[in-house]
Amino acid sequence: MAFNLIPKEEKFFELFDQQAAHNVEAARVFQELVKNWAAESPLQRKLQDIEHEADITTHEIYDKLNRTFITPFDREDIHALGSELDDVVDIVQSVASRMQLFHVERVNEDLAVMAEIFLNATENVRKAVLELKKSEKTRRIEDYCIEVNRLENAGDRALEQALSRLFNGKPDPLEVIKWKEIYEGLEAAIDKCEDVAETIQGILVKNA
Questions:
Q1: pLDDT (tens digit, 9 = 90+) per residue, 50-107?
Q2: Angle of helix 42-67 relative to helix 11-35, nearest 10 degrees?
Q3: Rounded distance, CA 95 to CA 42, Å?
Q4: DSSP secondary-structure letter at 4?
Q5: N or C, which end of the chain has less CB nearby within 10 Å?
Q6: 24 inside domain
Q7: Do 64 and 127 contact (CB within 8 A), yes or no?
Q8: How high is the pLDDT of residue 23?
């Protein structure tokens, strides 16, 4: 299947790659935070810095969109892709912040499993974004998007298992409230990766 994007403005692809790289970096920092949990860890600040950098990149995308007459693909898709990539970092930074605010004392294997799934999802999103400007790489992009979808399903299953263990027996109600929000927040970040993949697939279809 041919994929014909008109490369009138390459800067958009560079900015998308920057956003996708922010996502991967945030996922790696979050995974490291989970492995070496400490409420006052400097990794919390690192996540905040990444989130700030991602916001700047998003504003650059919007600004360039407003100033560019001929774009490589539909303007609404450029806006959607930039916004969704930014959301990924926002969500995971919020999860880490919640863990700090909730005074989480220790993390568990369920969260570690979900963090690994999240990292894999961001890595596959970045691979898809990197190939987006290459007209001959449509099949490869589709493969990456399919993998993100598989990972989202894995994230759903991991969430179900985590919640099942959380509600097992007679748990402390406050612990249930805290961990339910943490688990569901991280699953929302994985879901957002799937949203990005679906937007990319939509771009492929429109420009086939």
A1: 999 999 999 999 999 998 888 888 999 999 999 999 999 999 999 999 999 999 999 9
A2: 170
A3: 15
A4: -
A5: N
A6: yes
A7: no
A8: 98
Task: Indicate whether 56 belongs to any domain.
Answer: yes
Secondary structure of 148-163 in HEC code, one letter for each residue: HHHHHHHHHHHHHHHH
- Amino acid sitting at position 130: L
Number of domains observed in the structure of the chain:
1
From the number of C-beta atoms within 10 Å of its C-beta (0-12, 13-18, 19+), residue 2 rates as: exposed
Angle, CA 36 vertex, CA 168 and CA 193 arms, to 5°: 70
Give the burial string for 164-173 (b: 16+ CB within 10 Å, else e).
Answer: eebeeeeeee
Alpha-carbon distance of 94 to 108, in angstroms, equals 19
Calpha distance 158→190 (Å, rounded) = 11
**Best CA proximity match to 55, nearest among 97, 77, 86, 95:** 86
For residue 106, what are the domain limits? 11-206
5 in any annotated domain: no
**Domain for residue 57, yes or no?**
yes
- pTM, two decimal places: 0.93
Q: How does residue 2 score in pLDDT terms, banded at 50, 70 and 90?
A: very low
CATH number reported for the structural domain that contains residue 186 in this entry: 1.20.58.220
d(CA 46, CA 123): 19
* Spatial distance between the Cα atoms of 1 and 98, rounded to a whole number of angstroms: 45
